[in-house]
Amino acid sequence: MPKQAKQAVGQRLLSRFRDAGATEIAPDILLPAGDLLDLYGEDIRARAYVTQDPIRGEMMLRPDFTVPVVQAHMQNGADPARYCYLGEVFRKQDTGDTRPATPRDHEYLQCGFELFTRDPQADAEVFALFHDALAPLGLQARMGDMGLLLDAVRGLPLTKARSVALLHHIWRPGRFARLLARFSAPSIAREFPDVTTSWAGMRTEDEMIRRIARLQSDVAVPPLAPVWTDRLERLFALRAPAPQALSTLADLARDMPAIAPAVARIRDRLEAIAARGIDLQTVIFDASHGRTTMEYYDGFTFTFQADRVGWPPVASGGRYDALTRVLGRGREIPAVGGIIRPGLVAELEAQA
């Protein structure tokens, strides 16, 4: 696909976002790596291009726009505020994209829209904006809510240490499943022989002593009852058209009271989306949606997917309130946004 065609689609989408009241913003391509590493940990190195600057230190080619947009907004942004952008992002890999590697997969255009507001209708506004922009392409809309899953884990009868561990790995489904299985079985006592030689490895002696003490105290913790594992697995496996999913969620909330507030928020969101003329039967609610994306989504999530084997989502987004609190150094404002890949839109339009 010629670069000019992708740019033309990007400019068209950008114009639509400007018409929705957004101010265009152009974050730097080269970003300080420290902020991104603080947010995502060392795992981000596997996905981003990192370089060393003799003056500015470790830098990273822009892996996405959301973090620099939030940083700019939290410094001096208005409330409410809408931003849009168009530019390249750089990734070493794309989760879920099984096609052979191409330059597009490592450097590609993103066109996005971010909304900072306390208006409870914000999720519906952003979803409808993306839905209408992509309607001619016949994409499958999916949504979820990470807040629902986080509340479900917080509601499990676990010690604080075990709950924190599960919450930390909720975006890593494989690790999460292994940890849940471990907490659902009786703990096995471990022997830690006295060490007379010097400590080796990256951890200090004090860190190792504290870690051993935690492991020893964890042995006395009873396993999580099977009924809770079953309920959690039923929730994670929920995938259905939004109206039917809402009914199932209401049933689950009777057994898992911790998710009741999230289910009420989802009901209100769906009603607001339907009020904007969108048929909810065409939208799939996937309770595990968002578990393999960037970890800053902590609420509503959505994607629009083409019927193409191995393709990443044509558009994706969600709510990231906690990210504004982290980057705002204590200040925060509810925020939701998303991105569209103009290159994929251009391909679909060319094949229509």
TrEMBL record:
It holds the Pfam family tRNA-synt_His. L-histidine binds at D64, F65, T66, R91, Q110, E114, R291, Y296, Y297. It comes from the Bacteria. Residues 6-337 form the Class II Histidinyl-tRNA synthetase (HisRS)-like catalytic core domain. One of its GO terms (cellular component) is cytoplasm. Keywords: Glycosyltransferase, Transferase. SUPFAM superfamilies: Class II aaRS and biotin synthetases. GO terms for molecular function: glycosyltransferase activity; histidine-tRNA ligase activity. GO terms for biological process: histidyl-tRNA aminoacylation. This is ATP phosphoribosyltransferase regulatory subunit.
